Amino acid sequence: MSEDNPKSVPAAAVLEASKGMLQRQLFAIFTTPTDGLGHVFANIEEHLQFQVQLEKDGILYAAGPIWTDDEESWEGEGLVVVKAASRAEAIAIAERDPMHKAGARSFRVRPWLINEGSVTITLNNSSQTFTVK
């Protein structure tokens, strides 16, 4: 492997290269069924209650199902993004999820650095509605 085309670089180099950007460290929890969807659906209610509580506690950044590539079905995969002080803390959060505690899904936690992007929220006072784009 040549030095001008490395397969990886230290995180410090990425942080230095993007030093003017947001650099918000979050953790992505990729979750996958262990044995079909029966066990997933058997635990879905408790799982969703857990997710809502994470949201209320200010821990959950975003979560939801991952569709198949054709966008026509779901094979039980999900993505949960949490705010945590470390990967170990994010793993502990994932381990508390009823879906994982029941063995219906396995998970993998990856650190994710947010640098770019935007969120637009429009609040309509007259109708008391909002949109997120």
Automatic annotation (TrEMBL):
<dbReference type="InterPro" id="IPR005545">
    <property type="entry name" value="YCII"/>
</dbReference>
<dbReference type="InterPro" id="IPR011008">
    <property type="entry name" value="Dimeric_a/b-barrel"/>
</dbReference>
<dbReference type="Pfam" id="PF03795">
    <property type="entry name" value="YCII"/>
</dbReference>
<protein>
    <submittedName>
        <fullName>YciI family protein</fullName>
    </submittedName>
</protein>
<comment type="similarity">
    <text>Belongs to the YciI family.</text>
</comment>
<feature type="domain" description="YCII-related">
    <location>
        <begin position="39"/>
        <end position="112"/>
    </location>
</feature>
